[in-house]
Design a protein that fits this description.
Helix content: over 70%
Number of domains: 2
Shape: elongated
CATH architecture of the largest domain: Orthogonal Bundle
Distance between the termini: 39 Å
Order of helices and strands: HHHHEEHH
Largest sheet: 2 strands, antiparallel
Oligomer: single chain
CATH class of the largest domain: Mainly Alpha
Number of strands: 2
CATH topology of the largest domain: Arc Repressor Mutant, subunit A
Structural class: mainly alpha
CATH superfamily of the largest domain: Winged helix-like DNA-binding domain superfamily/Winged helix DNA-binding domain
């Protein structure tokens, strides 16, 4: 009975934690993979991960690549094992917040640049009163984007 209870608790932790990871714009498959790796006490191969999650090695490889690019997992070496092993970083808050903040800053900078291009195009022409009002709204929208950038730039995940 204790084993079933432990398995149930472990499944609840796994499911709830993977849902939290999804908040960081990570796909459900990647979030499940991360949660599983985090809960394991040892690094795992792609084959082991695929077997544990019931997914193909190709699907696991794609998810691992994404998590690696986000610097949330790392490949490790273990003597006597020729296959690649992967494990998570244990500093969850710092890693996730840094990734999340950088994504917000990057995305907002891109959007602001696109809006600034529109502003420059509009500002070169003689504008009607309606277009002038739209240009004023656009200025406000660009300032909003800059405020987002400024706010996220000041957040330091290492402080908490």
């Amino acid at each position: 009975m204790v084993t079933n209870n432990n398995e149930t608790m472990q499944q609840n932790i796994f499911y709830t934690f993977s849902k939290t990871i999804e908040f960081f714009s990570i796909s459900p498959a990647e979030a499940q993979l991360f949660a599983m790796l985090y809960l394991k006490e040892y690094p795992m191969t792609l084959d082991e991960m695929g077997q544990a999650l019931g997914k193909s090695k190709t699907a696991i490889g794609t998810s691992i690549r994404t998590l690696s690019e986000l610097n949330l997992v790392r490949r490790v070496w273990k003597k006597g094992i020729r296959k690649d092993l992967y494990e998570t970083h244990h500093d969850l808050y710092s890693k996730f917040m840094k990734t999340y903040i950088n994504n917000w800053i990057s995305h907002t900078n891109n959007q602001k640049a696109l809006l600034s291009d529109v502003y420059e195009q509009m500002n070169r022409t003689n504008l009607s009163e309606e277009e002038t009002q739209l240009l004023n709204k656009l200025t406000s929208i660009i300032e909003f984007h800059q405020s987002i950038i400024d706010t996220f730039t000041t957040i330091d995940p290492k402080k908490n």
